[in-house]
TrEMBL record:
InterPro entries linked: CRISPR_associated_Cas2, Virulence_VapD/CRISPR_Cas2
Stated name of the protein: CRISPR-associated endoribonuclease Cas2
Protein family per UniProt: Belongs to the CRISPR-associated endoribonuclease Cas2 protein family.
Subunit structure: Homodimer, forms a heterotetramer with a Cas1 homodimer.
Single biological process term from Gene Ontology: maintenance of CRISPR repeat elements
Family annotation (Pfam families): CRISPR_Cas2
Entry binding sites for Mg(2+): 8
Stated role: CRISPR (clustered regularly interspaced short palindromic repeat), is an adaptive immune system that provides protection against mobile genetic elements (viruses, transposable elements and conjugative plasmids). CRISPR clusters contain sequences complementary to antecedent mobile elements and target invading nucleic acids. CRISPR clusters are transcribed and processed into CRISPR RNA (crRNA). Functions as a ssRNA-specific endoribonuclease. Involved in the integration of spacer DNA into the CRISPR cassette.
Annotated organism of origin: Parafrankia irregularis
Enzyme Commission no: 3.1.-.-
Cofactor(s) needed: Mg(2+)
Molecular function, one GO term: RNA endonuclease activity
Keywords: Antiviral defense, Endonuclease, Hydrolase, Magnesium, Metal-binding, Nuclease
Length: 87
């Protein structure tokens, strides 16, 4: 599946969430990640993130689709991040 993940967390948790997301997805813009994940990788990512969040304060939004070709993406302004291989 193709995933777009956006997070808004307390400043002290940002580095932890950032590191976890970078293990699975490509960083594309400040608190935004995207990439292809298997079902097992998706479960591992969300399980790890649940342990790192304050569920009463932090917020993560995940958009899922079958393929990146099904998502129309338009850049305005400076392009950030990269699409290099994660491994």
């Amino acid at each position: 599946m193709f995933v777009v993940l956006v997070y808004d967390t307390a400043a002290e948790r940002n580095p932890l969430v950032l590191r976890t997301c970078r293990k699975y997805l490509h960083w594309v813009q400040r608190s935004v990640f995207e990439g292809e994940l298997s079902a097992a990788q998706y479960r591992a990512l969300t399980t790890t993130l649940r342990t790192e969040l304050d569920m009463g304060y932090d917020s993560i939004r995940i958009y899922r689709t079958r393929s990146p070709q099904l998502v129309d993406t338009e850049w305005l302004g400076q392009e950030m991040g990269n699409q290099d291989s994660i491994l």
